[in-house]
Amino acid sequence: MTQEPVALAAAFASFAELWSPRIVTVVNDYDVRIAKVEGEHVWHVHDHTDEFFLVVEGELHIALREAGGERTVVLPAGSVFTVPRGTEHKPSAPVRTAILLLEPTGTSTVGDRHDEVPDHVDATTGHALT
Amino acid sequence: MTQEPVALAAAFASFAELWSPRIVTVVNDYDVRIAKVEGEHVWHVHDHTDEFFLVVEGELHIALREAGGERTVVLPAGSVFTVPRGTEHKPSAPVRTAILLLEPTGTSTVGDRHDEVPDHVDATTGHALT
């Protein structure tokens, strides 16, 4: 199979759903996924994997429940953050935001344990780009 | 250790060396690295791992030696590409370019097999951000 570069702008333009990641490329047994987000995701935890976020556009907030208490990190466009495995977290975005994620193939968007998943959050291991 | 977000613009501003990746964050046993590049890298191959490229600014070319012959993929800013493991490749950039890379921790910039490494190419497994 011949691979071609993927323009992220075109990839983002190819879908409208929020909190519903698309897989743009696979690196060994990891997915690079992109998602459009706005509003609140759900508290969840990945017990066995870190999760990487890069903000392409907008602003992502990630609430974290750490040993020292709860805090929220703010990621403006062009910033990156890794949520450590085992850390409960809840992403949210005050405005329409475009993010790129990296995590092992098969990782669920709502983790291994989570609060009740609201209708606007897609519980998925990622969708193919179409 | 409390993690904080990293602004890529500040991270890029913190070093000047070309073809000399800095590790901005670690995701499980993978590094997210950034590099400033211009001119030609060296033909090399990673026998055991794919390598992911995201172009933050500028334009990256990646020459590939595939079963069907040699070709060059062109990645404008905002595009991504994964070089499959075992594929000889040579990145180059016609202008000053900023890239983000993803590969397993310990992966050498010149792969497992490579042409003679020119002086302007840093053979490294990545440097810490300072």
From TrEMBL, chains A, B:
Bias (Basic and acidic residues) ranges: 111-122
UniProt region (Disordered), positions on chain: 107-130
Location of the Cyclic nucleotide-binding domain: 14-81
Top-rank taxon: Bacteria
Name assigned to this protein: Cupin
Source species: Streptomyces mutabilis
